[in-house]
Write a structure and sequence with these properties.
Its EC number is 1.-.-.-. By secondary structure, this protein is α/β, with parallel strands linked by helices. It has one domain: TIM Barrel. The strands form 3 sheets. The chain has an 8-stranded parallel sheet. The longest helix is centred in the last third of the chain and has 33 residues. It binds flavin mononucleotide (FMN) and benzoyl-formic acid. Benzoyl-formic acid (173) binds next to loops.
């Protein structure tokens, strides 16, 4: 199911990264049921191809919130990329620029976000963790906006951080120079432990955070981690421009429904009011095809990009994005679709039981 280059990157990353870093990236929460089911869930859909269409060229260009991209395959926000490769986020941002993909930079980026913005040198979005220290969150968001972020993606599924069995304790020990690189100037004088506490996610956050982020940044805000139609509507009603269907790569609530099985309900409920993006377990062009046919505006990939980064820096991360994009073009041709506009739910047969 997994594309060969992606598998090779994974294997190389597993061999070369320190074991605790590999486990941090690879692991999921709890018994890892969601993590395991997530990849398989895409493969439970079946396709109803069209025939004798002109698919001599397959056009993968798309537009997200007014910005054109070469491919609907985008980079999911992932923390601490410098643990995978010295260039960290800079390499991944360069990879996204090279492939014309959307890059989403994490609040937990391990390189200064102005440098990440310079490396992206084009459209990028900023993922927001709403931290206990609101001023800290606001300062970071303003910096992201000043550095050119075109949208904010506030993560809704992480009021507290999921407990990962494979990682010793509840979290990997991330060196302070990675953890605080984007925060320390706003936390001047605080000792590292207090600084980390201020930077923790605020579990009391509500959907009002959407309006607050819009106010302080003037940017569109998407909510990431939505798995239900009614919750998507609640986010839109609070001012969200769109949502990301996600269970955080199986790293938060174990036994959460796989994204593949939540997507159609969310698309129906959103009813065209904004883009619905999706992530989780996307490892092939067929996975992308199913997601896009079900109505996703773009598909984000997390671990495959991190494995590519670990294996070969910016080149590896770009190779992962290119492999997925090329594979998507290939299966679209076999489906009789010459552009993303020709993908629709009639191409897809959902799993017989609905689950
Ligand atoms: C190592 C790692 C770090 C992550 N860090 C963040 C983060 O900082 N913010 C966030 O919203 N999501 C984070 N995620 C979740 C991803 O954005 C995404 O939802 C998930 O990885 C998609 O699943 P996939 O890895 O199977 O493609 C992280 C995922 C991984 C694997
Ligand atoms: O590891 C993660 O998935 C993640 O999103 C996170 C949460 C808190 C701190 C650092 C990363």
């Amino acid at each position: 199911m997994t594309l060969l280059p992606l598998q090779a990157h994974h294997d190389q990353a597993q061999e070369t990264l320190p074991p605790e870093v590999y486990e941090y990236y690879a692991s999921g929460a709890g018994a890892e049921l969601t993590l395991q089911e997530q990849e398989q869930a895409w493969a439970r859909f079946r396709l109803r191809p069209r025939v004798l269409r002109d698919v001599s060229t397959v056009d993968l260009t798309t537009t997200l919130l007014g910005t054109p991209f070469s491919s609907p395959v985008a980079v999911a926000p992932a923390a601490f990329q410098q643990l995978a490769h010295p260039d960290g986020e800079l390499a991944v941002a360069r990879a996204a620029r090279a492939t014309g993909s959307l890059y989403v930079c994490s609040t937990r980026a391990s390189r200064p976000l102005e440098d990440v913005a310079a490396a992206a040198d084009g459209p990028w979005w900023f993922q927001v963790y709403n931290m206990r220290d609101r001023d800290l969150t606001a300062a970071l968001v303003r910096r992201a906006a000043a550095a050119g972020a075109r949208a904010l993606v506030v993560t809704g599924d992480t009021p507290v951080v999921g407990i990962k069995r494979r990682v010793s304790g509840t979290r990997i020990s991330v060196p302070d120079d990675s953890y605080l690189v984007n925060l320390e100037r706003h936390l001047a004088g605080l000792p590292a432990t207090a600084a980390r506490a201020a930077a923790e996610q605020d579990p009391s956050a509500t959907v009002d955070v959407v309006g607050w982020l819009r106010e302080i940044s003037d940017l569109p805000v998407l909510v990431k981690g939505v798995l239900r139609g009614d919750e998507a509507v609640r986010c839109l009603d609070a001012g969200a421009a769109g949502v990301v269907v996600s269970n955080h790569g199986g790293r938060q609530l174990d036994r959460a429904v796989p994204s593949a099985l939540a997507l159609a309900e969310v698309v129906r409920a959103v009813d065209g009011r904004g883009p619905v993006l999706v992530d989780g377990g996307v490892r092939s062009g067929l996975d992308c095809l199913v997601a896009l046919a079900l109505g996703a505006a773009a598909v984000l990939v997390g671990r495959p990009v991190v494995w590519g980064l670990a294996a070969d820096g910016a080149t590896g991360a770009a190779a992962a994005l290119t492999a997925l994009t090329d594979d998507l073009a290939h299966v679209m041709a076999l489906t009789g679709a010459a552009s993303l506009a020709e993908l629709d739910p009639s191409l897809v047969v959902p799993p017989a039981t609905g689950w």
